[in-house]
């Protein structure tokens, strides 16, 4: 049986109220992510934190070296938990994430984080393509309103559309409570 790891994607200060790129429901999603992380730590599972930094100081958010690019206190990495710095949507691109997972014998990934329509989607699809079994905890992920052809698409609809797409072919998509109940069996 292969091991599992929790991948904590970009739960960083800029996504929270007062940050440069506030997401809808960021606090509630981070609270659920913290519950998933706590359960993983208790079970002895690997927890890998992903931290996004753009390379340009003119970036709209996650500027290099900024406070907003720091991991949010609700989900801070514990001693010994790897933090993978990335500069692209896909957490595997030009990082050592796959090496960390494969070196630990991980075959199952639990994904939490932000943004549902970008980096959560990107890491989930890439992980599935690499052959990992992936579970996305939908209420431990957050996003924001988007605009398309002059119309605003509310964050809840953006989130729902991406979770539905991932559930169709890339991952099992469950709530925090469903996941924790399954782990307790």
UniProtKB/TrEMBL annotation:
* SUPFAM superfamilies from the UniProt entry: Isochorismatase-like hydrolases (SSF52499)
Protein name per Swiss-Prot or TrEMBL: Cysteine hydrolase
Could you tell me which residue ranges the Isochorismatase-like domain spans? 5-155
Q: Which organism is it from?
A: Metapseudomonas lalkuanensis
Checking Gene3D superfamilies in the record gives: Isochorismatase-like
| Nucleotidyltransferase among keywords | no
Recite the UniProt keywords alphabetically.
Answer: Hydrolase
Q: Which Pfam families match?
A: Isochorismatase
Any one GO molecular-function label of the UniProt entry: hydrolase activity
InterPro entries assigned: Isochorismatase-like_dom (IPR000868), Isochorismatase-like_hydrls (IPR050272), Isochorismatase-like_sf (IPR036380)
